Amino acid sequence: MIESSEFIAVEIMEMKSWPVLLLVFLLLAGCARADPISSSTSVSPETFSFMVFGDPPELAAYQQLTQAFEARYPQAQVQLIAIPSQADYRTRLAADFTAGTPADVVLLNYRRYAAYAAKGALEPLEPYLANSKVISFQDFYPQALAPFTWRNQLMCIPQNLSSLVVYYNKELFDQVKLPYPQPGWTWEDFLKSAKALTRDQDGDGQPDQYGFGMEVSLARFAPFIWQHGGEITDNDLNPTRLALGWPRSQEAIEWLAALQNQHGVAPGAEQEAAEDSESRFMNGRLGMYLNSRRGVPTYRQISAQTGELDWDVAPLPGDRHLASVLHSDGYCMPSGVKNKALAWQFIEFANSAEGQQIVAATGRSVPSLISVAESLAFLAPDQKPEHSRSAFLDPLPYIRPLPVVPTWIEVEEVIDQELKRAFYGQTSVEQAIQSAIRLAQPYLGADSDMP
Predict the structure, then answer these.
(1) CATH topology of domain 165-325+404-444
(2) Of the candidate ranges 40-54, 294-308, 377-391, the one whose mean pLDDT is the lowest
């Protein structure tokens, strides 16, 4: 592939945007001033609600967290509202905000909070953090704080930051005598492993075991696009059009789509509908699965209960550049909360070293507090995964967020649908990209002609 100077220039300009934002954020954080809001504000006895999503092993982390908070502050009682499905959680959250009855503290992904922040539905938390005697801006990874900044105000406190990683089944690698994935491996290495791991064991012409699987979504495609030198939008901070049709972006999408519709190393649409890739991985019939840190509690539980899933993690394979995509959820306070002092007290505790150590010990997250991420509570050498540092911490210098705009939910929904059609061979990559550009443009508000 020949690289033109035009695309090199575009790439350099676009890659600068998030580092610049991080620098600006740190400068603003160091100068933060706000009305005093004391961490030790006394609060009257009251029950408050905290809404989260996750499957049972994930929810156990929040149960332990709320129990620890109640033990520390006996005057408070936490009503934990647990929604298993992320889709159901988003539906419930939107309905609650519309009705004016959201929980007092909610978890929101950085890609989704802007829709609420733009309507004034969230309480800015920058003044609270600036005056806290428990936590400070400097305690957190800036890569986690920056995406939660809206109009120069920190809106939510990030509990975690995770890169996208490769979970792999060690036993399946051993069966075909493949070396385990290592930092520095390439797309070519990944494809070679996926092919070797895809096996038709009963001879019926259909693989019983696949080498690779993933949720087909922009959040999974993004790091591969960036690694190849492409971009998602024309501007990270103020996107006006999609850049998926730029040559390097399209080439990366074509490479990923070919894993399924050309090489056959990933389940097709029918196979995925019958048993999704994560279930195949947990059942020992998938060699490699892409996920963030959130899968760890569930996979640990399966390994402990059955002894049949021997797994570990590796950073993503690389191409032209180093890149991974940010996954981060933040504790947010709806603006209509009656007892804001109590809600902040919980958010502050949850993001203190004590609070983050509780959640980290369950395996649920990569802590956003630098000290906790570097501690044994997270690295846990006596538990799976063995390579948490190389897979989750070492990629942080080149982790990138997706755009933070109020309409990004709608943009992603459009792109996800078209990526699925391309991945499962229902349309060409070029046609899927053009359709995504056309359908997403009303949510970005500018002409969508290709560069």
Answers:
(1) D-Maltodextrin-Binding Protein; domain 2 (3.40.190)
(2) 40-54
What does each C-alpha distance from 127 to 152, 215, 302 come to in angstroms?
12, 38, 42
pLDDT of residue 16: 39
Domains 33-161+328-373 and 165-325+404-444 agree in fold: yes
Q: Which pTM was predicted?
A: 0.88
pLDDT in tens, 2-20: 333 333 333 333 333 444 4
Q: How confident is the model at residue 449 (pLDDT cuts 50, 70, 90)?
A: very low
d(CA 226, CA 391) in angstroms, rounded, equals 18
Instruction: Determine contact, residues 296/307, Cβ cutoff 8 Å.
Output: no
CA 204 – CA 316 distance, rounded (Å): 32
Among residues 292, 277, 291, 296, the alpha carbon closest in space to that of 213 is found at 277
Q: Where are the domains of the chain?
A: 33-161+328-373, 165-325+404-444
* Other beta carbons less than 10 A from residue 27's beta carbon: 9
CA dihedral sign of residues 182, 184, 186, 189: negative
**33-161+328-373 maps to which CATH number?**
3.40.190.10
Q: How far is Cα 229 from Cα 281, in angstroms, rounded to an integer?
A: 30
Query: Could you read off the pLDDT of 20-30 as tens digits, one per residue?
Result: 445 444 444 44
Label residue 41 by pLDDT band (50, 70, 90).
very low
Q: Do 144 and 160 meet the contact criterion of CB atoms below 8 Å apart?
A: yes
How far apart are the C-alpha atoms of 177 and 196, rounded to whole Å? 9
Peptide bond into 385 cis (omega under 30): yes
